[in-house]
Amino acid sequence: MYKSIVIGTGPAGLTAAIYLARADLNPIVIEGIQPGGQLTTTTEVENFPGFPQGIMGPELMDNMRKQAERFGAEFRSGWAEEVDFTKHPFKVKVEGGYELEAETVILSTGASAKYLDIPGEQDNIGRGVSTCATCDGFFFRGKKLIVVGGGDSAMEEASFLTRFASSVTVVHRREELRASKIMQERAKNNEKVHWALGRTPLEVATGEKGAVIGLKVRNNISNQEELVEADGVFVAIGHTPNTKFLGNQIEIDEHGYIVVRPGTSETNIPGVFACGDVQDTRYRQAITAAGSGCMAAMDCEKYLEGSMVHDWSKN
Ligand code: NAP
Q1: Structure pTM?
Q2: How far apart (Å, rounded) are the C-alpha atoms in residues 311 and 315?
Q3: For 248-263, what is each residue's pLDDT tens digit?
Q4: Do the Cβ atoms of 54 and 45 come closer than 8 Å?
Q5: Among 42, 127, 173, 290, which residue carries the largest CB count within 10 Å?
Q6: Sorting pLDDT into bands at 50, 70 and 90, what band is 239?
Q7: Hey, what domains does the chain have and what are their CATH numbers?
């Protein structure tokens, strides 16, 4: 039996693992299908303190993993499929049929890319539809692209994709962008970026040979259907927290995010902690995820020492 299982290896899980390992708690860390989490699909991270020239997302995550290993964290690949938090020790069933037991669990499974849920989208994933510019942008050298979304992710992806594409059109359902000013400005100052605002995506359109030819949209002012032409569509409309595998065993909010006691990483089950994007509806930054991972490890240590005094149920 382990003292602690960490599920998820984004900045939150890896920071928790570093802290637990340095506290001699020998955590076991379960890495799912995307080790390193969302940062491994991003390009340069410019706002993680300590890297004045920026650092590539995958490199940052690789460094964090090595740091956790250096202090004795053990890593296992696989998808956590089921948990049993109803009695001690806690159990976590991992893909491949094995089960791990521990006194505490840190949930840091992050969030996954959302899809538009429109015709033609799922059929063309990997064949003209993508949620990861860093992974797939390279395949669209000299082509016309669409990025759907009006948030920071969409701005970032649009700017990044201009490295390869001849042009990138941002399709957003409202006239106003949600993205931060600096990210908007960067995209707006890029002459390869074009705008189709106030357009609701209806369908990924394909041509005679089945290749993606663009996105059918509804112009929200004229109420007319239009085709925004492109060879590829990148969907950047946010993320869904990865909490399905928890069943009904832990308190989650109406959007699926784990509820933690404010200012802590404590879930409603003593000994189970949450950190990173899986519980963060507000900040969702690499640095806040890392910070919350540190909090989870420290809360976990206190719990194991028996010095955690708060009873959540009496909140
Ligand atoms: P987000 O801020 O939630 O934005 C999602 C965008 O997609 C919104 O513009 C939304 O439209 C649109 N959208 C959602 N569902 C849609 C649907 N079904 N059809 C059409 N459009 C839809 O998500 P995000 O851009 O991924 O950013 C998430 C967080 O990460 C934010 O806090 C952001 O600041 C942060 N982030 C930071 C950086 C950076 O600093 N380098 C980079 C990426 C992300 P509405 O606006 O109409 O709701």
Answers
A1: 0.76
A2: 7
A3: 999 999 889 999 999 9
A4: yes
A5: 290
A6: confident
A7: 2-112+239-314 (3.50.50.60), 115-235 (3.50.50.60)
